[in-house]
Design goal:
The protein is α/β, with parallel strands linked by helices. The protein contains nine helices and eight strands.
Length: 233
């Protein structure tokens, strides 16, 4: 993994990209947060993020996050951005401050039950597979209305907004279309349900500019900050 000095330089470059993307789309740079994605990186990556004043980190797996969290002091928020199996929901509720990858009605029910047992109000994002990518999780666009209805009816869940991952493609217009579709979907849901869904978590290292132009409020950045991830064992 990179040194802390290299990380700081990388962070500054990412911030400059965000600022330019915001300028080009007529948005204030402060409205887009960076979520450093520390999955599969050593625990030093989280220390780097904390030293740089980043308030949260994104992880993909419950077990890895549990091990890392046990070695760290408090002071950083933990966000789950990877697919969550329902049999890990109880542990995830205990570990994470927000779960972005809520992708099924069954998971909504499990998270709400475990959050109720833990006497916790759990912030979530509802994940939508707007690009209809068969290799990705998330509700279809057509299923998002009943998904939001179920989540809003869950007394121990708080829906902060929506999340998506753009389909992998060399054509940048593919990501652009996916991000715009999620923003339009969010706007329809807000109007239909009369709620606020302020968070749009979309955009990563390779497509953050398109995501910001479409209205992203949080970009999930790993490689551009920490370098390539170690291969899975």
């Amino acid at each position: 993994m990179v040194s802390f000095d290299n990380f700081k330089n990388n962070l500054e470059k990412v911030r400059q990209r965000i600022e330019l993307a915001c300028q080009n789309s007529g948005r204030a740079a402060g409205c887009v947060q960076i979520l450093p994605v520390t999955k599969r990186h050593p625990i030093d990556a989280i220390h780097y993020a904390m030293r740089a004043g980043l308030p949260a980190v994104g992880e993909n797996r419950v077990q890895e996050s549990s091990q890392k969290k046990s070695l760290l002091p408090t002071g950083v928020r933990w966000e789950l951005i990877g697919h969550l199996q329902t049999n890990k929901a109880k542990e995830a509720v205990a570990i994470f401050d927000r779960i972005q990858s809520v992708d099924s009605l069954k998971l909504i029910r499990h998270l709400n039950r475990h959050a109720e047992q833990a006497e916790k109000l759990l912030p979530i994002l509802i994940e939508c597979n707007v690009g209809k990518d068969p290799n990705k999780f998330g509700f279809s666009v057509e299923a998002m209305e009943p998904a939001l209805e179920a989540a809003l009816a869950s007394g121990n869940l708080h829906v902060d907004g929506l999340m998506t991952i753009a389909p992998f493609s060399d054509d940048k217009d593919v990501a652009k279309a996916a991000f715009e579709k999620l923003r339009q979907l969010r706007d329809r849901l807000v109007a239909s349900f009369g709620v606020t869904l302020p968070e749009l978590s979309m955009g990563m290292t390779d497509d953050l500019e398109a995501a910001i132009a479409a209205g992203s409020t949080q970009v999930r950045i790993g490689t551009a900050l920490f370098g390539p991830r170690p291969k899975e064992q």
